[in-house]
Amino acid sequence: MDTLVLLTMTGLGLGALYFLIASGLSLIFGLMDVLNFAHGALLSVGAYACWWAASGHLPGAGPHGAGFVLAVAFGVVTGTLAAVALEVGVVRPLYARPREQVLANVGVGLAVPALLSGIWGSDARTFPVPDALSGTVTLLGARVPANRILLIGCALAVLVGLRVLLGRTRAGLVVRAGVQDRAMVSALGIDVRRAFTLVFALGGALAALGGALGGVYFGEVDPGQGTSLLIYAFVVVVVGGMSSVTGAAAACVAVGLLQQFANYFTTAGLGDLAVVVLLAVVLLVRPRGLMGRLT
What we know:
Belongs to the binding-protein-dependent transport system permease family. LivHM subfamily. It is a multi-pass membrane protein. The chain crosses the membrane at residues 6-27, 34-54, 66-90, 102-120, 149-166, 195-218, 230-257, 264-285. This protein is mainly alpha-helical. The chain has one domain. The chain contains twelve helices and four strands. Helix 7 crosses helix 9 (192-218) and helix 10 packs across helix 11 (245-265). It is globular, with a radius of gyration of 19 Å. The model has no long low-confidence stretch (mean pLDDT 84).
C-alpha cells in the first residue's frame, strides 16, 4: 500500500510538472495558433534565473523561506520578459509566414541553451532546494517527498486560474474573439496585438515557473533541461488535444502515472517507451486528442 501511494504521488507530481510546462504551450497554440518550439528555452531561462537568485546573487533572495519565494518570482518575471521579447522580436513579424516562424522558434530554442552553456558551462548545477521541500511528509502511511505536494498544488492553481481567465474575464474573451475574427475585433478599437503579447507572456511565465519548480524536483538545472522536458510537454499537448488546457491536464496525469508505474514494475526506462505507445494509440484512436478545442 505504501508503495502504491508513493508511486501515485510521485507520478502526479511529475504530471504536475509536465502540466506547468504544457499549459503555456497549449495556451499559445490554442489561442494564437503558434507552435512555440522555443518554449523549452523559456523554461531554461526561468530555471537558471531562479537558481542564480536563490544562490545569493539577488539581494533578499535565497534558498530558504521568503527568500526562495522571491527567487522563484524573479525566475518567473525573467521568463515572462523573455517571452515578450520573443513574441515582439521573432514571432510577431512572422505571423503571416508560419513556416519561417517555426524555423525561427527552433533556432531560438537551440540558441538559448547554447548561450546558457557558454555563460555557466554545460555541466548541471546543484539547485538550492529549501529545507522544507527537501524532506518528506506522511500520507496514508507513505513518506512522500514534500516537493511533489507543492507541484500538485501549483498545477491545480494554474488549471483553475487558466479556466477562469479564458471563460470569465474580458481579457480571455478578447483573445478568443481575436483568434476567430481578428479584423472585426480590431475594428471595435481593441488592440489584438497587445492581447496576443499578453498570452505569450503568460505562456512564458508558466514555462519559467515550471523551470523553477523543476529545479526543486530534480535538485539541479542544466542547459538542456528545457529541451528534454519540452518533448514530454508536446506529447501531453498532443494526447490531450492541441488546443485544450483541460485535455493537457488529463494527459499529464496519465503520462506521469504511466511513467512511474512502468519504470517501477518493469525495467527502468520502459516508462518512456510506454508514453510513446500511449501517444501512438491516442493518435490512432482519437487523432484530435482527448479534447479537440480550447476548454
